Each structure stands twice: as structure tokens, then as C-alpha cells.
Amino acid sequence: MNIIKLISVLFCAVFALQACAESTSVTKKPNIVLIFSDDAGYSDFGFTGSKEIRTPSLDQLASQGTVFTQAYVSDPTCGPSRAGLMTGKYQQRFGYEENNVPGFMSPVSALNGDDMGLPLSETTMANVLKEQGYQTAIFGKWHLGNADRYHPMKRGFDYFYGFRGGDRSYFAYPANHENANNPLFLDKRLERGFGVYEEPSIYLTDALAVETNKFIESSVKEGKPFFTFVSFNAPHTPMEATEADLAQYPELKGKRKTYAAMMLAMDRATGAILNKLEALGVADNTIVIFTNDNGGPTDKNASINRPLSGTKSNHLEGGIRVPYVIKWPGVLAPNSEYALPVSTLDLLPTLYAAAGGDSNKLTEIDGVDLKEFITGNNKGRPHQYLYWKKDARAVIRKGDWKLIRYPDRPAELYYISNQDVGEHNNLAAQEPARYTALYKELFEWELTLERPLWMLEKKYEKYDIDRMDSYR
Questions:
Q1: Of 75, 228, 301, 443, which is most buried with the most CB atoms under 10 A?
Q2: Quick check: 254 and 303 in contact, CB under 8 A?
Q3: Mean pLDDT for the chain?
Q4: Mean pLDDT throughout 402-416?
Q5: Count of alpha carbons within 13 Å of 442, Cβ hemisphere only?
Q6: Rounded Cα–Cα distance for residues 156 and 90 (Å)
Q7: pLDDT greater than 50 at residue 389
Q8: How far is CA 67 from the centre of its chain?
Q9: 86 pLDDT more than 70
Q10: Average pLDDT over residues 442-456
Q11: What is the DSSP secondary-structure string of 14-62?
């Protein structure tokens, strides 16, 4: 072979290798980290305006991605909100209308205790990502069913380190805990995998970050794309923080001090995960999402939702509007905002499409693939309508108009804008035709839903209304 032919062969080989590398780079599936806080106040993050609660890691994440200023959950309480997130559909469509809290349910509830959980007929976010070749894991709070049949590892997750219920201590329970044999206590136990129980050796929020990073390291070593759902229970009650974190807020007192320390720990844990992605060289190929399950319960943990009215468990903006950030390298511009309404229902189709799936093949979901909207290719609204419902209470948002129906007073109508984000100007009397039309459209949506599979005692409806009135 003469020198000219040799050079030609080498050139072709190099070109082929380069083309192969570029093709692999283009088609490589992005890793996904979904970080979920629990009961945080809307205004208790630096990137949402707090000057008191320090969240440097989450603020940095917000500066690296897109902050959504009108982002919503599908319910203002823990369990139903998670059911919507995990399925991409309104949870009332499969009977998951009320919170599943054993010990608080009506005696005539169709299901109770451990039988309350995400129906096995429903497909989860973990299911669809696993189909795309992802390793899947959840760390922290599950709250989608305590029975073994509802276990995360039977719902698409390869690995679980957390607890099945809605809350637990941030410190290790003693082996001789007074409620150790109480059935209502069992869902608070920390579980590794399926059925292996152990208590944390460090503060739980930090432990969740440690375990998350082990999973990420393992996935990267194996060369497989990963999806990890970091479902912090912070800053949900019980109000517990380390002495070191409490010492960071000498100017605060009482619940607010403890809350601030719990938020600081969650932010630190988030930072540890983000730093691990950088250290492993996969940050530029990882979608990171942060959001919260519902509005802050100000009366329980001293969280702040202002300027939004309302709290957890009611349908004012303070109960359903949440902080929401997506960092998507190469797709979303850093330090950007998106102002049109989106929902946590959208995460399943958006992430499925990002993983290589065809979101058009996802049937019977209510979320939408956000990519074309948030990149500016589609200037329209992701949702013309959004809905919420619990018992006799319900909401329809059409465009920027929001009608709220109550059990104890006439429905109210608000134009949700920057001028009335606190829902102070009820326009029902000024807009009678719009009021009536929205009322009817809300009912038409309700006719598409299933009856609740379980029901709380009726007295909790009064509790939710009173809480709403206290924080308008």
C-alpha cells in the first residue's frame, strides 16, 4: 500500500470514529434526577424571594436552569399530589381523591389502612422510564400505599431506600420504641430494598443524599442511564433538626427556627447530589428537576407562602402553586423563566420523551410534553384548563380565570395575574356569564372522574376550610 492510500485509509478510519462518537453523544439518553420537597413554603427559597431561609444549592440550580413561576401540583396534599406526579394523570380519575392516612379515615370508607394505595392498574413514571432502559430508584417518602403490593419495587423502581408512609422521625427510632408493634407505626420504619428494615445512623435528610449518591455512582460505573426520585420528607413534621443546623439561625425562634434548619439540611443534601453529578462527569447529561408536593402548612411548620393566599390542603394559590425548576443542559437556557401555567402532571410525558419515548403513545394521561413549550418552539399554553377537586370543593382554571367552589359559601372567581396573585378581588358579581360557564365546565370535568376509593372523616373538611380562612 503506497503512502497516499495509507493516509486515505487512516483519514477514513478517523472520520468514521469521530462520526460514531458524535452519533453516540447525540443519542445518549440523559440521566434524570427528580428532587421533591415535602410541605415547603412557596416563598421559602432564595430563588422565590426569601431573605431569611438560606437555600444556596437550590438557588444555584435555579440559576442553571428554568424557573417556572406558575407551576402547580394536582392536589394540595401529600398522597394525591404524588399519585398525580407518578402517573401523569388527575388522580381523581382512578379514585385517589383524598389523602391516604390510616387512622383518619371514615368508618364507611371503601378502603382503609394498608389497602389504600396507588391502584395496580396505573402505570408509573418509573415504569415508563424502565421501559426505556433506565435504572430506577426512589429515596425517601413513598406515601402511595403501605401494603406489599404497592411497594415501590413493584411499581417500576429497581431500588428503594425510604419509608412507605407519610411521615417519620429524622432520627433513628429506638429498637424498643413504644409503638413498635402498633400497625399505624409500621409505615414509618426505614426500609432498604424490600422488607429489610434499618434505622439511619445519621440525620435522615443527609442519609437520603448518601444513599442517592451510591446509586448514582453504581449506575455511572455500569454505564446505564438512571432515574432517581429523591423524595425528601423535609420539612414535613415532626419538627426535628440537628443542633448544628439550628445554630445557623440564632436570630430565629420556635418552629420557624427548626423549619429553617430543616430546609438548610435539605438544601445541603441537594448540593451533595449535584456535586456528585459534577464529580462523576455526568452533570452535562443529567436533567435535574426540583419541586414541592403542595403548599406549606403554615400552622404546622411555620412555612410562608406569601404573597399567595392559603396553605396546604386548600385550593387557594398557596395550597397548589409550588416552586418548580428544571435544569436541562443543552435544551433549556440557564437563568431563565417560564411564566405560563404548568403542572407536575407534565413531568411523566416530558421525561419519557426526553428518554427517547414517543409521548404520543402515552394514552389516558393529562400531562403534556413540555419541551416544545419551554424551548419557545410552541408559543401556546401547555394547558388551557387545569382542575382540582376534593369532596365538594373543586377548582377550574381556564386561561387566567380561576373559579373556586366551596361547600359553605358561593363560588368565587378570580383573574389570576401579577396584580391579584393573592386572590383578593372576587369578580363573580362583575362576570356573571363567565362565572356560570366555568361552574358548568367544572361539573362536566367531574363527570369524567371515579368515586373516591377511600374517604377521610368529614370533620377534616371543616378543618381545611378553617385553615384556608386563617391564611387568606
A1: 75
A2: no
A3: 94
A4: 97
A5: 25
A6: 20
A7: yes
A8: 15
A9: yes
A10: 98
A11: HHHHHHHHHHHHHHPPPEEEEEEESS--TT-SGGGT-SSS--HHHHHHH
C-alpha cell at 21: 462518537
Kind of pairing, strands 342-343 and 71-72? parallel
Check: CB of residue 39 under 8 Å from CB of residue 296. Answer: yes
DSSP 147: S
Tell me phi and psi for residue 386, to 5 degrees. Answer: -135, 150
Alpha-carbon distance values, 429 to 3, 40, 316, 414, 438 (Å): 89, 35, 19, 11, 14
Amino acid 244 reads: A
Q: How far is CA 79 from the centre of its chain?
A: 11
206-240 tens-digit pLDDT? 999 999 999 999 999 999 999 999 999 999 999 99
pLDDT over threshold 70, residue 11: no
CA distance 157 to 134: 10
What is the Cα–Cα distance from 78 to 143, expressed in whole angstroms?
8
Q: Which residue from 267, 287, 268 is spatially nearest to 277, judged by alpha carbons?
A: 287
- Report the distance separating Cα 51 and Cα 302, nearest Å: 15
Question: Is the distance from CB of 232 to CB of 37 less than 8 angstroms?
Answer: yes
Q: Taking a C-beta distance cutoff of 8 angstroms, is the pair 90, 387 a contact?
A: yes
Query: Mind listing the pLDDT tens digit for each residue in 23-57?
Result: 344 468 999 999 999 999 999 999 999 999 999 99
Helix (H, G, I), strand (E, B) or coil at 6: helix
- In the predicted structure, residue 264 carries a pLDDT above the cut 70: yes
| Banded pLDDT at 363 (limits 50, 70, 90) | confident
Cell of 311: 396553605
CA nearest to 38, candidates 90, 70, 79, 99? 79
435: pLDDT confidence band, cut at 50, 70 and 90? very high
Strand 324-327 versus strand 286-292 pairing type: antiparallel
Residue 372 · residue 431 · CB < 8 Å: no
Residues 6+ apart with CB under 8 A from 144: 79, 82, 83, 86, 100, 117, 118, 150, 152, 155
Residue in 378, 441, 432 with CA at minimum distance from that of residue 410 = 432
Q: Where are the alpha helices (DSSP H) in 161-253?
A: 204-222, 243-246
Residue 157: count of CB within 10 angstroms of its CB? 24
Give the CA count within 13 Å in the CB-facing half-sphere of 21.
Answer: 6
Distance CA 128, CA 448 (A): 25
